[in-house]
Amino acid sequence: MASxxxxxxxxxxxxxxxxxxxxSDQKLVNLSFGINETRDQTKKRxxxxxxxxxxxxxxxxxxxxxxxxxxxxxxxLYHCCLPFTVGxxxxxxMPAARLKREGLKGIHPVVLVPGIVTxxxxxxxxxxxxxxxxxxxxxxxxxxxxxxKRPLCWLEHLSLHNETGLDPPGIRVRxxxxxxxxxxxxxxYFVWDVLVKNLAKIGYEGKNLHMAxxxxxxxxxxxxxxxxxxxxxxxxxxxMYRANGNKKVVVVPHSMGVAYFLHFLKWVETPPPxxxxxxxxxxxxxxxxxVNIGPSFLGVPKAVSNILSAEGKDVAYFRAMAPGxxxxxTLGLRALEHVMRVSRTWDSVVSLMPKGGxxxxxxxxxxxxxxxxxxxxxxxxxxxxxxxxxVNNSDAKQxxxxxxxxxxxxxISFGKAASVLHSxxxxxxxLKEILHMNASRNFNSSCGEAWTExxxxxxxxxxxxxxxxxxxxxxTLFDLLRFVAPKMMNRAEAHFSHGxxxxxxxxxxxxxxxxxxxxxxxxxxAPNMEIYCSYGVGIPTERSYVYKLSPSNKCKHIxxxxxxxxxxxxxxxxxxxxxxxxxxxxxxxxxxxxxxxxGWKGRTRFNPSGINTYVREYQSKPPTSGIKSTTHVDIMxxxxxxEDILRVAAGATGEEIxxxxxxxxxxxxxxxxxxxx
Amino acid sequence: xxxxxxxxxxxxxSKTMSxxxxxxxxxxxxxxxxxxxxxKDGADNDDKKKDQYKMPQRRNYGSKKWSCWDNCxxxxxxxxxxxxxxLFLYNTMPDSIPQFVTMAITGPLPxxxxxxLRKEGLTANHPVVLVPGVVTxxxxxxxxxxxxxxxxxxxxxxxxxxxxxKRPLCWLEHISLDNGTGFDPPGIRVRxxxxxxxxDYFATGYxxxxxxxxxxxxxxxEEKSLYMAxxxxxxxxxxxxxxxxxxTRIKSNIELLVATHGGKKVVVLPHSMGVQYFLHFMKWVETPAPxxxxxxxxxxxxxxxxxxxxxxxxxGSPKSIALHFSIxxxxxxxxxxxxxxxxxxxxxxLQTFKHLMRMFRTWDATFSMIPKGGxxxxxxxxxxxxxxxxxNSAKKGTDNSTRNxxxxxxxxxTKGVNYGRLIxxxxxxxxxxxxxxxxxxxxxxxxxxxxxxxxNCDIWLEYHEMGxxxxxxxxxxxxxxxxxxxxxxxxxxxxxxARGASHFSYGIADDLxxxxxxxxxxxxxxxxxxxxxAxxxxxxxxxxVGLPTERGYIYKVAPPSDCSIxxxxxxxxxxxxxxxxxxxxxxxxxxxxxxxxxxxxxxxxxGWRGKTRFNPSGIRTYNRExxxxxxxxxxxGRGTQSGSHVDLLGNFxxxEDVLRVAAGATGEDIxxxxVYSDILxxxxxxxxxx
Lengths: 677, 690
Hints:
By secondary structure, chain A is of the alpha/beta class. In chain A, 39% of the residues lie in helices and 12% in strands. Chain A contains 25 helices and 17 strands. Chain A has a six-stranded parallel beta sheet, with helices on both faces. In chain A, strands 10, 11, 13, 14, 15 and 16 form a six-stranded mixed beta sheet that branches. In chain A, β5 and β6 form a beta hairpin. In chain A, α23 (589-599) crosses α25. The longest helix of chain A has 53 residues, at 41-93. By secondary structure, chain B is of the alpha/beta class. Chain B has two domains: 113-316 and 537-548 and 593-685, Alpha/Beta hydrolase fold, catalytic domain (Rossmann fold); 319-387 and 412-452 and 459-526 and 549-587, no CATH class. The radius of gyration of chain B is 31 Å and the shape is globular. In chain B, the strands form four sheets. A six-stranded parallel beta sheet of chain B has the order 7-1-8-9-12-17, with helices on both faces. In chain B, strands 10, 11, 13, 14, 15 and 16 form a six-stranded mixed beta sheet that branches. The relative contact order of chain B is 0.10. The N and C termini of chain B lie far apart (69 Å). The chains are: A alpha/beta, B alpha/beta. At the A-B interface, α1, α2, α3, β4 and α7 of A face α1, α2, α4, β4 and α8 of B.
């Protein structure tokens, strides 16, 4: 650092003080850095003492000053030039500007429902370590600076109670209400901001635009129990409906907000005390359309790896926003364990587990994506319509399939062998043995304070699960999870269900735990409502995992990890222990599109009133950033999607904006799924 | 610029140099002997240096290497490093240290009321609705002109005043309303911020509701049981409903709060102008649709437990007159606090005041603060409720009124003050008895005779349509009371008042059953409305006392000049004695610095006390006064016993009362009336049919 700077200075001196010979300069340099080339050692040393002292401190100051000045100068120039550059970019960033010129005006009030981890949380009551943080953001906005300042305190406050799934005693963390609750999850990481700005352009404002903030850590029904969030949403929608001249609302849920809003649809028509008492027809009266963005209707495989080892690229925000925190030793080398401990107290994570079991996600030897081609970089999508979907590129696929049959149905496999061998070659019923063994375990809590439920388990049985080659499908997965995380699953399964209903008339389906599962609920009776599934495609998305035992068997360590050493050949779907399928980076196409493409299409038992559904896919284009990006979160800034939302909000129907728009193999995948409708 | 910089540079250099030089003596000489080359060069260099920098020391090795540019860099780096270092220390400092230091100096702090009451076992009970007042609520931009590109969603008012600080004219353009309609100008949409953030802090560090909210949170309140009834405080009350459906929103939210809290009624805390807004709301909500909210005749009884009015200007405030007349008042103190110098400097090109006046005059809501009740309440030419009635002449009266100045806690000597004269032209007219004043009627003086060059003024003000004769006529009228002040305003700003008069009324109703009082313009005037039929409701008036509050003004005609406001407060006028109520052309009375006691206390002390025609169902009312005590030291910030208009919201005694009521106590439980001032006596003097 200092030497660089001296070298920088040198030419300057030569110029300015011509008489200053290079030898004296040389000397200065030498003195400063103790390169002993000079003749008189003793004198040098004395001189070095004082020159060194002088130049080091001063040099530092000089460098700082130099950098600062340059920085300010650049900043100044930037600010001077900004107005000119902004003017040119604006029209492109704002589809609303164009639509406004077309005469589009906001008519229907819009409700935005944020997804998991995108909503802000603030502190209302805390432990002493959180002094001075009252009503300050813990999550979102400036909240993450607290993560760096007092990490353990921060984690403690974000955790929920292990048994109730509500706040731990003495801590109250609440969602931040208002439009600016979810717009900036972290500075520079836009979530709703672009959409809100575009809506504002065509006339939206506080009275007809609402952000339904809720605590995304809680199970859906608990948001009502604790915060009255569902009641608030109902009252807000009714108010907006009345205050805007009886115009129905357009709801825009994102990610997990989709499941949350499904829950709301059932809740609002259910009589109190369990429901909102809006009565039959409430949805038909108040809702024009639901534009689901990146919907995780049928769950995401990511949730599984998250629960099992906190490792999925999920809680991707974690990494994106605090890069290095997970991997470096900030939290005492236990970042992942801490994350796991906290995220396991969040019931909502369970709502994201794959729903529909083997019927949807495939079994040991079959999956709806069987013919999927993984070479994402070269793959070209063709617009599919029912007439030509059997024609295109069948050859390539056939070849590919023989070469590398991906068994997506096995969401978790221990060892690569388990992920490729035919099911008949795999051992069976291992889990039951272990369960049996575990029941009679003599548990020694040598680990002291239990961090994760892994510490309460018999280490032997843990290893045994991992040691045997074994694969788990979307159905058997739950046995595994119930085994490794019994308390969490106990708690969460009181709130969520992941099956498929045989008989939807069964009165048991009136219970709220079924409300957020589209395969176990009926859509409300609202024939004029419209449901859109808008999601990005063309990005590799985690679909199943190859696991291994982690090398260390110490206490407080997560015993399993994704086997990142496992790779497929070039062009294979397997990379670093993860099988990828088509999707938007978080949600596979299957989960996002199936309900709209088949499950609810037309009049089915899940959709008795024949609500119109539309699949709107947004294809990822090579420069996947900014306004054309289609990844799970960035899609909120995708101009094509925004244009669709604006048109719907301005009164257009699904047919008017172009009906289905499908690039992926969605329709064929859906056809392969054998579900009674 | 360069001068101080070079000074600092030489200062720092000389400091460091002298330090170095001390150790330098022997070293440098030795070096020279050993290396004649260097010596030669050094000597040459030193000569140069001497010429360049006028540094007398020849053997100054260090400085010769440092040119001006280097020194600048060094200096900047030095400052930056120190700054960062301090910043680092500040950030790593545990949060408890400031508190610790404060405690070390002032002794242990009293527990905040929330903590104290929590120990007593109080818990959240009734949901709480906060109604912010004028200027304290945040406003944000939803659609702007070209100059506000990229500022969507940014706060226009409150917060840090966002990016607008840099472009004042743009800001003024956006914050002003349309002169004709009283709504936003075309192409601009500025809307209130919603949620608790709307008015928890006005600007960074300047709390409004934050302390109340924090203490409510201590006893268990959280976002679900608190509601900030944010509205656009620039609009007239009914217009907030027309444009934003604000009243509908408040109704719906209160209904929701009651429903989600198992039928527990809400406690409403309006502050400042919010008091009138809520009065308006109560009439609106029970009026059938479409003119009202259609809540039915017992909506208030069903939904409201208590209304705790804080710093309530029920009957307006004389301050607003000065604001309307010449925008000169010391108020909008918040604005000044936010942008010190902005008002006084020439940032806007010498016309700051007129810009502000124009902006201010487009805000309909300010009309709500004009004194209501006329001479009956505010006093006539020769009497006012605050001073003993004078029978014959001012001279006799002085003997009686001296009694008031004694130990009664009056903040100044009220001797001979005619509070009833809200505006007087010159001090003499303020003191002379009415029988000796010859007043000239001004209303019929034609306005023609325009000011010279007024067409050059690019700023719209109705003063420009007034001629010299009209100005003289206004001044010749000499004295204005609360009654005639309205005529004055109508005269000097007819368009403005026409707009205001369609939304607000300032009189006293003779017959409250007259159907004309169903019109919304009367709803915010407590003297022209009946309280709802809700015998179980309670109304509190909580206000600060012990601070000098503007009560009357002495004006002068400004020296004529182009495009200026023709009237000014005559700041040269002072009272005779040290503790006179007249200072800088302003008569002060007792109050909370903004609202005089008579306005804040009269309705609860007399107008609504018991069963009156204004309060037919006999809603119980309580007066709670908080005596102002300045903060003990700087560390206490704005004080925990302050009585001033906004700081009152941080007053511990007030917060304790609020918490107790919110937790279920009645007015009797918390001790009924608590009165320090003479409000009861003054109320008696006011002769109004009840």
